[in-house]
Design the sequence.
């Protein structure tokens, strides 16, 4: 199909840095044979390994993944056409252009923000993108021209609007815009005077640090957030919202530790999160954070995959599935689509690493069914599909069609 895959970019940059295969493999602590398979396109690197390789090659992970992807989705839906307008709004956030029309009421804007937030959580970026610039402009106007409680509420909704911007930019591969949007979440959250929204803004910043491989900085920030939430709770009696946000922070810490090659510390963080989920009693989405027993299990699987335990991850899914009377663990039907799709993408990569090509394709197909846009723009889905196509040498029509759809 002519698409340049991750391994080819690794090879090009490795040669530019005057490194042999053995030298780069040694630096990222993998075997020479594994790196050779990655460069040939016969193996798909995990996000953790991809971040390590990018760090050694002194580039961002997006340089290796080739983001943003201008694939078939753009010609079908023009989903990325809103990016220039979002850049303008993020740049002029405190000195916006005058509104041509009077903005809607804050109550109407709040309803629209909730609607776009739900679209975000379900990975419906095509539907979420076009209304987002106008919503941000109107909320900015209301926030900057009102006073008192209405102003604080407007800034609170504006923070959520910028959070949606961060997510859209990140998922589409515009990481510079994503970082700017995170700073705008901070700016609006500070003016809203909402302590948990401020924690949420810092949580998003830590996520950006994680994606760029700044693991030490991400760890310090997240650990400080755990302490900050404790400080906010009188006598350590956390509200359900505080508990849910703290649990999400703990899960992010587990990911940081796993990516940093510290599995024992990752399991400690997961144990803390599991305890918090037990107190919470069920799954929740406070402050748009997916947290609860389900998300703890999802992160257990992701942690095993990050540290190379793909076989153990699949065994645990079978174990949990047996508890349900199923072959494999099935997610709750009401779980946010973006979260569910992400899980199936992770499992597809694990299955492929274990040589189960058919199972990998089943999970990729499940991810697409749950959230097509999220799957289409996800780097792991893209290179897993591409690897499957190369391994089947284009002889599987369904795999080839999926890879073409994903732009792999």
Sequence:
């Amino acid at each position: 199909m002519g698409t340049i895959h991750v391994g080819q970019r690794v090879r090009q940059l490795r040669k530019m840095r005057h490194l042999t295969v053995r030298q780069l493999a040694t630096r990222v602590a993998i075997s020479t044979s594994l790196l050779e398979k990655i460069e040939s396109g016969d193996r798909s690197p995990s996000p953790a390994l991809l971040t390590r390789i990018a760090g050694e090659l002194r580039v961002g992970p997006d340089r290796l993944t080739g983001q943003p992807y201008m694939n078939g989705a753009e010609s079908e839906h023009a989903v990325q056409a809103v990016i220039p307008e979002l850049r303008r709004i993020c740049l002029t956030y405190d000195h916006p252009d005058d509104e041509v029309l009077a903005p809607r009421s804050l109550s109407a804007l709040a309803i629209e923000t909730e609607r776009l937030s739900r679209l975000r959580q379900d990975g419906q970026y095509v539907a979420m993108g076009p209304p987002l610039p106008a919503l941000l402009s109107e909320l900015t106007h209301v926030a900057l021209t009102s006073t008192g409680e209405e102003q604080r509420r407007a800034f609170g909704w504006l923070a959520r609007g910028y959070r949606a911007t961060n997510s859209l930019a990140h998922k589409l591969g515009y990481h510079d815009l994503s970082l700017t949007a995170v700073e705008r979440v901070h700016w609006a959250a500070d003016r809203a005077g909402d302590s948990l929204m401020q924690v949420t803004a810092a949580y998003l910043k830590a996520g950006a640090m994680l994606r760029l491989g700044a693991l030490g900085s991400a760890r310090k920030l997240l650990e400080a957030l755990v302490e900050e939430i404790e400080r906010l709770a009188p006598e350590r009696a956390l509200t359900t919202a505080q508990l849910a946000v703290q649990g999400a922070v703990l899960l992010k810490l587990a990911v940081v530790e796993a990516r940093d090659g510290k599995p024992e510390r990752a399991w400690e963080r997961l144990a803390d999160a599991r305890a918090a989920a037990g107190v919470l009693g069920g799954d929740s989405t406070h402050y748009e954070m997916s947290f609860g027993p389900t998300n703890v299990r999802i992160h257990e699987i992701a942690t095993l995959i990050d540290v190379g335990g793909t076989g153990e991850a699949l065994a645990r899914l079978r174990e949990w599935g047996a508890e349900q009377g199923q072959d494999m663990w099935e997610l709750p039907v009401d779980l946010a689509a973006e979260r569910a799709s992400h899980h199936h993408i992770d499992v597809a990569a694990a299955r492929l690493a274990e040589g189960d090509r058919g199972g990998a394709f089943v999970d990729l197909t499940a991810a697409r069914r749950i959230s097509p846009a999220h799957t289409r723009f996800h780097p792991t889905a893209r290179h897993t599909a591409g690897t499957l196509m190369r391994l089947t040498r284009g002889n599987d029509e369904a795999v080839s069609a999926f890879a073409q759809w994903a732009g792999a």
